[in-house]
Each structure stands twice: as C-alpha cells, then as structure tokens.
Amino acid sequence: MRPHRLWITAFGSFPGEEEIDFDALAEAGLFLIHGPTGAGKTTVLDALCYALYGRVPGRRDNAKSLRCDHAPPGRGPSVALEVTLRGRRLRITRSPAWQRPKLRGEGTTRENERALVQELTPSGEWSGLTTRVDEAGDLIGTLLGMNADQFFQVAMLPQGDFARFLRADGEDRRRVLERLFSVKVYAGAESWLADRRTEAHREQQALRTEVDFAVKRIEEAAGPELLALIEEEPDPEDPLGWAAALEALAADAEDRAGRDGDGVTETVRLTRTALERGTALADRRRRHAEALVRERALEETAQERADLEAVLAEAARADRVLPMIRAAEQREETATKAHRMAADAVARTLPLAENAEALDPRATTEGDAVRPGVEVSSERLTAMALERREEITRLEELRAQEPLLLRAVQERETLVGQIAELGDRQKETDARLTVLPGLRREAEVKLAAARLDAARIPAAEAVRDAAQARLRAAKERDGLATALEEARRHLAVALQAVPDHDNGDEACTRELLVAREREHGRLLAGLEGLRGDEARLTELARLLAELDAEITEAAEREKSLTARCAELPARLAEVAARLTEAGDRAAEIPEARARADAASVALDAARRRDGLRADLETARARLTEAVDLAQRLRDRHQDLRQARIDGMAAELAAKLVPGEPCAVCGSPEHPHPAARSGQAPTAEDERAAQDAYDAAADQRGKAETTVATLTSRLEEALAIAGETPVEEAREALDEVRRALALLAEVAGTRAVLQEEAERVTAELDEARAGAEDAARLLARSRARQEEWRAEQDRLTARLDEARGTDPTVQARRERLTLEAALFAAAAEAAGRAAELAAAHREAAEETDVETEQAVRELARAREVLAALTESARAESALAEEAERTATEQAGLEELSRELAVTLAAGRTREERLAEDVERLTALLDGARGEDPTLADRIDRLADEAGLLTEAVEATRLERTATAELAAARVAAAAAAVEAGFSGVEDAKAAVRPSTEQEEKAERLRGLERERAAVAALLADPELVAASAEPEPDLDGLRAARDAAETAQAGLLSAANQAKARLARLVTLRAELAGCLDLWRPARRRHRVAESLAALTGGTSGDNRWKMRLSAYVLGERLRQVVDSANERLDRMSGGRYLLEHGLGRTAGDRSRSGGGLGLRIVDGWTGNDRDPATLSGGESFITSLALALGLADVVSAEAGGVELGALFIDEGFGTLDEETLDGVLDILDGLRDGGRAVGIVSHVTELRARVPAQLRVNKGRRGSTVEVSVP
C-alpha cells in the first residue's frame, strides 16, 4: 500500500479543501507531521484511514459527525485518496453522512454516506469500479489483505494503545489480539467439540435407556413362569444370550399347547355334526305337520275360486266393448258443441241482414235428448259477405287521396308561417337601415382620436422612468439611514455585552475588540488539549457505574447459581425415579393389550350371537314361506297338467284342417271334432306353471342354505362368547381398556421425563460452570474498579487546576467561547456601522428629492401613461367597428331586395294550395258516409264480412258432427251384442276397474299357489320319511356339543397365548439387538468426543498448561510478535532490554482463556526479569514502539506478506533523551528500506531540525490548513 495524494474537504478540523502530496514527502523517506495541539495532525491520519475503510481509529469512530464545524453550510465532507494497492493505481473518494441544508424551505436533511472507487487504466483514464459503500470496503480489504483494525495497528502505530497493551493483563491482551488475529476457527472447534461431547453423552445415555427398556419388555413378555425356569441374569453389556434362552423356552411351551389342542378338535366336530342332523330332522317333521293343516284349510276355498274366475271372464269381455262406447260418448259431446257454436255465429249476423226472415232458427228432438238446431241460408250469408268485400275494394282505392290532402294542408300551413316570418324580417331590415349611417360616422371619429393618443405614449413612458429612478434613489438613501441607525444600536448593545466595558470609553475601537478576541482564542486553544481528559473522566464515570452494576449483578448471579447448584440434584433424583416408574408401566402394556384384544373379540362374538339368533329366526320363517310357496306352485302345475290332458282331444281338434289327415286316426274327414271348454289350459299355461314352480324351488334351496350358514356362524359365536350378555362383555372390555389407557398414559410420559432429566442435567452443568465464571468475573471486575478509580482521581486533580475559578473546565471553555464570540460580534458590528455610514453619505450626495414627492410624481406619470395606453389599445377595436358598420349597411340593403321577391312568390303558392284542399275534402267526405273516417268505414265492413264467413263455416261443421254421432252409436251397439251382452247398458254394467280386476286375479293366483305348495310338501319324500321317524333329543345333543367346545376353547386360548408370547419374544429380541447395535457405536463416539473436548478445553490431564486451544494459538502469535520486537528493542535499548513471552497465566488471571499471553522485561544489566509496569516513560516508549513494529511485521505476514509503502507513528518521542532518540531514529530510518515512507507525528522541536521533510498543520479561528515543506 503506497499513498500518492490525499484530498480533504470539510473533514475533521479542515473546513476547506486541502491537498497532501505523499509522493513528495516519500522522496525523503522520513517525514514529520507537526502543528499546534488540536490543529488536526491526527485528523490527517483519520482521513487516510476513512478513505480506505470508511472508519477512523479508536473512539473517534463513534462521533456523530466527521464534518468540520467551520465549513460553510452547503459544503459536504469528503476525502479522496490516490493510492497504489498490489500494483493497481486507485482513486478512492468517500463522503461520510452529514446534515445538509434543505434545498427548499428551512432546516436540514440527512445526506447518506457515499463512496466511489476508480482505477487508472493503461490509457491514462480513470475507470469506475464501484459506487457502493459495502463493495468499496470489500475491494480495499481484499487488496490490502487485512481488516480495518489490523491496518490501524500496523500502519498507524498508536503509541498510547501499545503502552496500555504492554501493561495490560492477559484478558485485555486477548481482546486486542483477537481483533488482529482471527481465532474463530479454533474457538469454534472448542465449542463444537464441547457441544459434540454433550450431544454424544445424551445420545449414548438415551440409547442405553432404550437397551434397558428392551430388557424390561422381554421380562414382562416372558412372564414369571419362564423367568423361573432360567437361572442367569441378563448381561448388561450383551443380554442377547439371556433373551435367546427365554425364546427357546417359549417355543417349547407353544409346541406342547398345540399338541394338546389337536385331540379335542375331532370331538367338537362329531358333536356338531350330530346336533346338525337332529335339528334338520326336527325341522322336517314340523314342516310336514304344518302342510297337513294347510291342506284342510284350502279345501274350503273351492267356491270362492269359481266366483272369481266368472267375474274376471265377464270383465274381460266388457273391456273389449268399452272403447267403442266411449267413442260414441265423445262424438255426442262434439256434436252438441258444434250446434251451440253454429247458433252463436248466426245470432251475431242478425243485425246485418236486410230481411230477417232469411234466417229460420228452430229446435229438433231425437229420442229423449234435446239439442239446439239452426238451419241457415248459407247462400244469403255468402252474398252479404261478398258485397262488403267489394265495397272495401272501392274504398281502398280512395284512400290514396288522403295523403295528398294531408300534405296539401301541411304545406299550406307551413307556407303561411313563412310568409309571416318574411314580413317581420322585412320590417326589421328597414328599421336597421335607418340608423346605420349615423353609427358609422361616430366610429370613424373615435378611431382618429385613438391613433393620436398612441403617438403620445413614448413621451409618457420617458417621464415615468425618470420618476421611478428618483424614487429608487430616495428609498435606497432612506434604507441606508435606517440600517445605519440599527447598526449603531446593535453596536451599542454589543459593546454593553463585552466584559469590563465602560460606556463612556470611546477608545474601545474595532482593533481593540479584535485583539481581545485573539487573546480568548489563545486561552481556548489551551483548554482544547484537555478534552481528551474530560472525555476519559466522563467515560470513567460511566464505566465505573456500569462496573458497579456488573459487580452487583455478578455477586447476585454467583449467589443464585450456587443456590441453584444445591437445588438441582434433588430435582434430578426425583425425575429419575419417575422415569423408572414409567418404564415399569410400559413393560406391562403388552399383556394389557392382549387382554383388551381378547375382551374385544368376546364382545364382537356376543353381538354376533344375538344378531345371528334374530337373523336365524327370520331365515327360518322365510324358509317356511319358500317351502309353502314351492308346494303350492307344484300343486298348481300338477292340476294344470291334468286339466290339459283332459282337454287334449279339443286341443288336437283345433289343429285339424279340412282335407288334411288327422294326427291321431289319419282320416282326412272330421265329422265331429271335439269342442274346447271355456276354461281348458293351454301348453303356455303349463309351461308358465312349471317355470313358477322351478323359481320357487330355487328360492327354497337358497333359504335352506341361508339357515344352515347362519346356524354354523351362531355356533362359532357361541363357542367364543358363550351365553355372556353383551352388556357384561362391554363392561369387561371397557375395564380392560381403561387399565390399558392408564398404563399407556403413564408410559407415554417417558419421553417427557427423559427430556426433563436431560434438561435438569444440562441446567446443573450450566449452573456449575456459570458459578465458576461469575466468581472469576467478580474478581476481575473488582481489580479493574480499583485501577479506574485511581485514574479518575488523577484526571480530576488535573482538570480542577485547569478550570480556575469556573465550576468546571467546560464552563470555563463555554465562558471564554461566549466572551470571544461577544468580542467578535462587537468588532463585526463596529465594522458594519462604518461601512453603512460611508454608503449613506454617498447616497445623500446623489439625490435631494424627498421620498413622498418622488412617489407623487411617479403616480401622476403612471396615470397619464395608463390613460394613453388604454386609448391606444382601443384603436384596433374601433377600426373593426367602423368597417363592420359599413359592411352591415351594404348587406342589409341587398337582403331587403331579396325578401320582397320571396314574399310575392310565397303568396301565389298559398292560393293554389287552398284550392286543392277544398276539392279533396269534398271527395273523401262523400265516400266515408256516416263513419268518422274512411279507414273506420273499411274496418267496419271487414269485421262484418268476417262475421258472415264465420257463420257459414259454423253451420257446415254442425252438419258434419251430427252425421258422425249417428255412426258411432250404431257401432257401439253392434260391438256389445257381438261380445254377448244384450246392449250397451248391459256392457257398461259388466265393466270393472283395473285395480279391482288385479286384486281378484291376485287373490285367485294366491289360492292356486298355496294349494300347489301344500301338495308339494305332502309329496316330498324327505318330509314323509321324517314324519315316520321318532322325535330327536336336541337338548342332549346341544349339551354334548357345548361341553366339547368349552374344552376346545380353553386349550385354544392356551395355545394362542403361548404362540403370541413366542412371537412377542422373537420381536423383542430383534429390538434388543437393534438397540445394542445403536448404543455400542454411540458409546465409542462419546469416549472420543469427551477426550478431545477436554484436551482443547484445557481440562485434560494431557494438557500440560491447562490452556484452551484458542488461547494457545493467540499465545503463539504473541511469541512471534515478541521475537520480531526484540530485534529492534535490543538496538534501541543498547542491548539492555528484551521482551519475554510466558505460557503461564498473568497475575490475577484464573480463566482458561487468558493463559499463554504473559509478557516480562528481561534486564540484561541485572539478569532479572521485570514487570513492564516498572519501566520509565522513555523505556516504555521504545518497548512499545518495538512491540508495535513487531506486531506490524506479524500482521503483514499473516495478511499474505502485504507490503506497506507508508508507516505513521503517533507521539511519544518527547520522553526520549538525545542518545535514545538517535537510536530510535536509526531504527525508523531502517524502515525506509524498499522505498517505504515513515511519517512521525510529534511536538518535539528537535525533530523539526532532524527531519527536513515536513507536513505542517496550521490552526486558525476559521479552521485548520496544511502545508507541505520538502527540501
């Protein structure tokens, strides 16, 4: 890094723009930065640091604003640095945030921080790289290879900081070194290993708990019987052998239970078969007895069947006649309606007839029914309608004249209005022509006057301008007089405010005021040097207050954590006991779950048992119905077959054809063929009966299958549930489930309790560590409190001496500042009064006119000019008015002539239109007759023609309907006779509704089906055989079956329990193996993590220095710094002093993080080592300088070997004697190797003679400036 030029604007102490040429200073190699106290020497270094990093070193970076207070309001702060970084020539421009004046209105607005980085290209032009603040910082940090803190320590070398570093304890050195050397990786490794140790411990502990739980579950699943058969206890490291032995014992028990159950199974099967046979025999005997009873009941319904068949046959014949009877009734209704409509139509035409006798209405009778009848002369009605249509045609031809009449009337009315309007316009035109000549002459006179006024305007404007000039001069003179008077009053007030001022002393001139202001400025400059002490004293007060609070808080925290460490072990023991209890309850869950499963199966079986009994009763009833129906249909089929056989001769005779041979005897002649009786069944009837019987037989078979299935399912349910009521089984299940839920609830708390145990353990560890840290922090804080209080006393004494008689140094500074400002204000007021007096004299000599007179003259000139301007402005309007009146006169004369011609033509046209209207009106009035209009007459004639036509059509329809009615009555009577009825009324009486017919037919079919079903049952050989056998003993058979099933259920339950236990043990042994596979690697990982965490944390026995890893790395960095510093310290001290780095802890340091950072001074003259605090001021300076240079070397090497082309050393040379100063300068002169420039910031006068290249900072009342001096 080599700086070339630095530009500073309104930054720090510099209100203007300052330029520093570092290239000129670097040619000498070593240069001096000097100037008065508070001039801004350090500000130059701050500006360079801010240009690079956007920050300034030390506490100055916390300032609210970096802008110079002396800068003009609108000038913003900025720094620009031209620098070479790793061979790249850059120009960096930065502007810190500041409050600039608003562009509109009053007040200020915040201007944000800005940055611009440019690079010099080979073509000599500057190319922009970035304008973002963050990107600029990243770019500079990357090129320099170090952060801001490292650069401040390496390139700026603040001696005060290194003196404090030299005397600091291990903890303070650690904080400084951590800012320069990153140990985040090593500290992160420590934290990661500690966390990993905790995680590994928790992991292996949790997995070990799972192993213990798995062993517990195996013991619960095995039960006391199996555990009593094995003598060994489970091995904590490998319990799999013990689990395998239990599994083998369970397998033997399961095999024995299976063999015992096989023998009783055959007994159960034989007893169930015997019970099923007895039940089937009893059912067949019952069905045969019921069929005999039903057969006797059916013999009593023979007469009912015959009546039903006769009624249904008569209704069928009536249904064939019914459509024709209903058609005749509909024709009668149609004819009646046609007669009524014809009478109405003829009645409406009566007013139209010329002779009423042409219409002859009369009434006719037919039988007992009376109907209206009308005989009309259709020819007369037709002729009347024709006459009206011809009249309509003639009138339609005349309707074409109506539009002509309407248009003529309208045109005449319009023309009359136009003639009246034209007459009015003629009168208006003539009246206007009488006045226009006078108006024209008047406009021409006004136009001439306006043109004359326009010519007089320039002279009036000259008079107005002269008056305005005289008024301005008078006002300026009066304003200066007022300002002079105000300035003299202000001067008097300012002189009264000046301290020790005598109003009668006229020697208090401007020069005297300026001299007293300068004296106060000198005193203020002396007080400015104490601002650092004031700030430090204020900071000490704040730090001590914070430290008191920290000490109180640390003491309370130590007390609280100690009490917490005493409470937590009892809490941890309580949680562990609850966790053990939850594990015990979890081990009981499998057995409880098995009991719940068995109770649930029993409840389901009891519910099925009750449901199956109801279903079985329903199925048996349906089976009885199906058997009865099948028997009835079988009987019906047999009856139909016998009846068909009896009528087979008639059936064969129906197929005989004359001349064809008989199928029975072969004769071609058929003299007496057999006749079919009315009720003889056909082959289709027989097939239908056969199909019905087959369907009923299928239904009977399905019903028997359903009964058998339900019986078997009921027996299975009884085998499980027995006769236990459902409510009792439900209560047993609820009780088992409640017990299981309670066990699950207690076992479910295991995870929560495990987390609670881990949390309490972590809290205990944290509390113990926190108590130790609190004790260490309390000791360090109390030591720091004593040091800061001593420093506070020293600074208080120094500031008490500086404040004099004022309450505080700040009060003295404010008083002097106020008095200096009063002197400056008085001097400025005196100068202002002198300037205004001279200006007033010059203005009085220029004019002697009073202001009021000048105002009156200007007003008169403006009035005259306004009048002339107004008159001249009307010139164009007047010219237009004259021209307009002339044009209007000529136009009106022409219009008057045109209106006379138009009026004459209009009156002639109006007369012709009146004649046409009269002629057309007479023609149309004669044609419309008595009707209002011709259209009304045409509409009336059209309506009358329509009524006549409607009457003709109605009479025709009446005659047609009468003829159709007669034909329908004849057809209905013939159909009734053909169907075997005496007439239509007889057929109507035989008609039955369809619902009644269906009910009677269904009743007949039901009787037939029942008769057939009973016959089928009585003919069934199985039922006949069953009725001959003795009644079976069902109660004895059921008792035998129940006894066998009870024995089977007991053995089956034992076998299932043995099988379930074996399966559970197999599963649990696999789970135990899985838990062991997870726990063993976790235990190994925990041992490794614990060993590494203890080693890097400083608690391991293998760690000789009991030092953390991060502290060891920082100690190694400090050793490198000491080695590099000793190379220069040996020369600067004349071989007397060397720094010594120690790995042990410093005095009072009990933390593991502070080890390895000890520093001692080895005195080569005495051979003893010393505390750095015992060095004198000069010895401390050279030691701190060597330490700073050594640190710079190590940090530069850490940053990748970056070379710094400039180095700045701030203060400290005043404590050196001449010989030591020569040695230090020789060392610094050696730093110039490789072209490096070294800048020294110092007040020492001797250095100005020894270092010719200088950068002087000049301080003034308006701010500071810089001056470069190079020989």
Automatic annotation (TrEMBL):
Pfam short name (any one): SbcC_Walker_B
Domain Rad50/SbcC-type AAA as annotated: residue spans: 8-181
Record carries keyword Zinc-finger: no
Residue ranges the record marks as coiled coil: 530-564, 613-643, 726-805, 851-885
Keywords per UniProt: Coiled coil, Exonuclease, Hydrolase, Nuclease
Keyword Nucleotide-binding on entry: no
GO biological process, one term: double-strand break repair
Gene Ontology terms for molecular function: ATP hydrolysis activity; exonuclease activity
First and last residue of the signal peptide: none
Region (Disordered) location: 666-700
Taxonomy, superkingdom: Bacteria
Subunit structure comment from the entry: Heterodimer of SbcC and SbcD.
Family the UniProt entry places it in: Belongs to the SMC family. SbcC subfamily.
Name this protein carries in UniProt: Nuclease SbcCD subunit C
Organism: Streptosporangium saharense
